User: Fold this.
Amino acid sequence: MATEAFQKIYTKINSITKATCSLKATGVGYDELATVNGKLAQVVKIMGDEVTLQVFEGTGGIPTDAEVVFMGKAPSLKVSDQLAGRFFNAYGDPIDGGPAVEGVEVEIGGPSVNPVRRKQPSELIATGIAGIDLNNTLVTGQKIPFFADPDQPYNQVMANVAMRAQTDKIILGGMGMTNDDYLYFKNLFSNAGALDRIISFMNTTEDPAVERLLIPDMALTAAEYFAVEKNQKVLVLLTDMTMYADALSIVSNRMDQIPSKDSMPGSLYSDLAKIYEKAVQFPAGGSITIIAVTTLSGGDITHAVPDNTGYITEGQLFLRRDSDIGKVIVDPFRSLSRLKQLVAGKKTRKDHPQVMNAAVRLYADAANAKTKLENGFDLTDYDKRTLAFAKEYSDKLLAIDVNLNTEEMLNVTWGLFAKHFKAEEVNIRKEFIETYWGKV
Amino acid sequence: MATKGKVTGVIANMVLLAVDGPVAQNEICYIKTGGDSLMAEVIKINGAKVYVQVFESTRRLRIGEEAEFTGHMLEVSLAPGMLSKNYDGLQNDLDKMEGVFLKRGDYTNPLDEEKVWHFEPLVKAGDTVKAAGWLGSVEENHQQLKIMAPFGIEGEWTVKSIVAAGDYRITDKIAVIANADGEEKELDMIQKWPVRVAMTDYREKPRPFKLLETGVRTIDTLNPIVEGGTGFIPGPFGTGKTVLQHAISKQAEADIVIIAACGERANEVVEIFTEFPELVDPHTGRKLMERTIIIANTSNMPVAAREASVYTAMTIAEYYRAMGLRVLLMADSTSRWAQALREMSNRMEELPGPDAFPMDISSIIANFYSRAGYVYLNNGEAGSITFIGTVSPAGGNLKEPVTENTKKVARCFYALEQDRADKKRYPAVNPIDSYSKYIEYPEFADYISGITGEGWLEMVNEAKTRLLRGKEIAEQINILGDDGVPVEYHVTFWKAELIDFVVLQQDAFDDIDAVTPLERQQDILNMITGMCRAEYKFEDFEDVSSFFKKVINLCKQMNYSEYKSDKYSSYYAELTELLATRQVAND
Assistant:
């Protein structure tokens, strides 16, 4: 970083912890950036003339006489159309060997949208995956995470969703991503010939953990440029938000804050909300949609990270391996898209909500029948029919390898209803039964 | 002279000031930085060192920057013209703010000072009034609003003069009052009141007893809430808290609805902004927005203002209650408010209580709920604030401090259950764990049987017992198997399912099923009770389930049909026919 002539240089650090260092300095602003022997740091506390800096890449090797230069600005990103097709690190510096981006410098983590200036999301994002489009329809301006165990193919499903969705820009924010997954995304984007509409901000496991804290704000600042200035539909992919939260807990621990549930900082909810709430439908047509990944530990959603996330996001998508069909499916019980009613039955066929609910209810009956079976009880005829239905429903609709349009999905479901049940067993409005039962 | 301060420390939104004069706890000050003026509230005083929580981002705030104290606590401005407004947590009018993004330090007037109102006096010179006494009225959105004597004034005051009926702005002088000591006050239509202080200028607060109809069957029929009652809705995410809250706020028979979106999703507020101006109040036929005020502090807006937002909402509710109106206040979610308290307590390095919440969380929640209630005003009229808060328990575990402390004070408990939500049995209110204490009040029993007739509460209790019995039998069937229990057990189980599917489950997105007026709820409960009390003959358990599935299907078709329409009647006829095939003659 270039230092300007008038900037005052401090060379006496009083205390150093693993992530922070403190020194006496004056005229410093809260949240301001500084460099400590060239390493980027940010002001996290000011008490009188003592300033505490959080050093992003860790304080290893920093001497007490390190040169500290305050930059007089918060972390920022230069935004312009030149961002498209590029790969950056957490500071917004190119890592693809290309030239630096020229553009307007914008502070990241900027202000929130005035809620009265938002527009209600109403545009469907089709993914072809019935577990999503049929049961958990996505809408532009929505924010939704995959809740998945680390061994599940969430990055692949997310990449599929991104490539099929009709959007103008895809912005990938990688936090603690393995180098292998980074290369997977890079190859996928390059081979799809879609590189010019993709922007990536990458923090891999090889990079310092605390740097990750900048990734979501970098990605979303770029997203806001395209959504606000260019009225584009932007899809932001954030993977993995659990790694982001881990970095938060490291910093709060170093700052001697009292931890709340699961060693996470008490402000976890606000910290995550600040990111996810950047998802928005602007009145002028631009939008930011966020699809994130929150990895779970052994499927535990009561852990503070998935729990707080669930309260912030508009639903969540669960993946599960269905041993009956040997495929990964989108779990219909635990997955939910809160915005689906804005499009289901409105932008899709009118029978969509009722068909979706009836199918899930019958799938739940099948789960009960399965418990009965496992407990060694005789199954009724109805039980057997629900089991047969569930297997086909799982294979033809819930599996992640499905690629259909919503009308086909509905017709397939009606077909399964008629094959396995009587009309009065599905509890659907008579008008729909009359139109579709045994006819599609 | 106003006290001034200088910034001596910054940790996130907590700022330390060194002050040069007297400062009050909870006093408001403004810190000047880089051309912005940041509103802040005093939360701790230690000699000349004052801790304030800033209601905005503190980015680039520097040591030595100046603060000016205002001499008053956080207060709201109350006058005609607030209905249909969208405020932030500090009562700034969001529609008056320019640009797509919220700007730091942008404070807008919550009231419209230019608008002219037709004022009708209700007192004449020489009359005496007390605090909150009615001086006159103006009409806003078809509701008669009262212009009142200032809240909090002591004793009796004499009206010296009052303007004649006519058109006035809220800033115009409308009356002069004086007390026995000769102290005079000139009054306009604006009241100011500190949000953290309860407004208690009423005669008495009796136990509430009047049903507040919500059109939601699982509430009105099974666990009713009353005008001036308190309730809370805890539930894990994804169980339909917000849908249920929106349903209540759309359908409840209230004069004024105040929605405090406290630390929740912005898109949910947008849904209200978008739908309420279009939707019609089922009781008056006018647009819902006309009776609604929204206090929006979404989760990405500053945390300290989130904590203030619920108080802002409650104070506005008290203003309308003092006019003799029925106010419904909804807060979604009170957990976010508690979390805001936790963040601040943590920054002040207070010793934490359970789950790192502040130790006094229990009394803070209790005090807040106690501000709701049904009151008789000094002039004998009645007004009410019904308060329903949602709670978002961490990990869906109801044994956490916010849920436990709310349970101690709220009289209605609507427990949303993951299991019901997974099975798409919406609204996912667990019928067995949930309760309404009001149903045990003799005052309420008298009131409700005056509307629904004798025998109503008996039927309600019977339905609850059947649901419990059904659940017990379901567990037994799970253990013993379908043929391990007598056929009568299956009948009992399916009677409980009938109540569940027809009374409890309700489609909030269906035009007809979404709202069930009390009259129709009576019909449903009467019909269901009749079916449950009847006896039927069956061959075996499969016979039982296939019969009841047909019954449930027909009842649901009735629920989806317009009340007493031809379609409704034909389903009813079909149902009667079906029942007759199995019913044992009752003699």
Observations:
- Chain B touches chain A through 78 residues (CB under 8 Å).
- Chain B has four domains: 4-74, 112-189, 217-451, 455-582.
